[in-house]
Design a protein that fits this description.
The chain is built from seven helices and six strands. It is of the alpha/beta class.
């Protein structure tokens, strides 16, 4: 593996990339930086933020590099939504896919993203708040929407670090 390459919007994906780089002893670059620092065709681990099931930057990274694992960072709990995200992004079955729960703070979003998520928090948050039989995942999502939250942690990356250690 040559590097960890990422695309981040509010900082959660960048934070995970840095933690993972330290843990695996690999250099870390944003997708923009990597174009000048990592040779095209190199083996990489790619991290991108999830929006509506799409992993931002993945398609571009897959054209430039040999992506050996993909990590999507979003609001959902770590390890969830794997089939939906694999299908939506056309990630081959041969490539390990991991999902990580990121931090959430509407104020860190910009432009249209802030507007979209503000509306989502109001509508989905209200629906969840009124639901009487919420699952633990829904409780967590509601808490995150209402209170914001810091969810980035080394513990969330356990499956990725184990996968990496098993291939090396």
């Amino acid at each position: 593996m040559k590097a960890i390459i990422y695309t981040s919007n509010t900082g959660s994906t960048a934070e995970y990339a840095q933690l993972l780089g330290k843990e695996l002893n690999l250099p870390v670059h944003s997708l923009q930086q990597a174009k000048n620092k990592v040779l095209s065709g190199s083996e990489i681990i790619y991290l991108g933020w999830i929006m509506a099931g799409g992993i931002k930057g993945y398609k571009e990274a897959a054209k430039l590099y040999k992506v050996r694992a993909v990590c999507g960072v979003g609001m959902g709990q770590t390890g969830t939504q794997l089939k939906k995200i694999r299908d939506k992004n056309a990630i081959p079955q041969s490539i390990p896919l991991f999902t990580l729960q990121g931090n959430f703070d509407v104020k860190k979003l910009h432009g249209a993203y802030r507007l979209m998520m503000s509306v989502m928090v109001k509508t989905v948050g209200k629906q969840l708040a009124n639901k009487t039989d919420r699952t633990p995942e829904e409780d967590d999502m509601l808490d995150m929407m209402v209170n914001g939250g810091k969810r980035v942690s080394l513990q969330n990356m356990k499956a990725i670090t184990e996968w990496y250690k098993n291939i090396h």
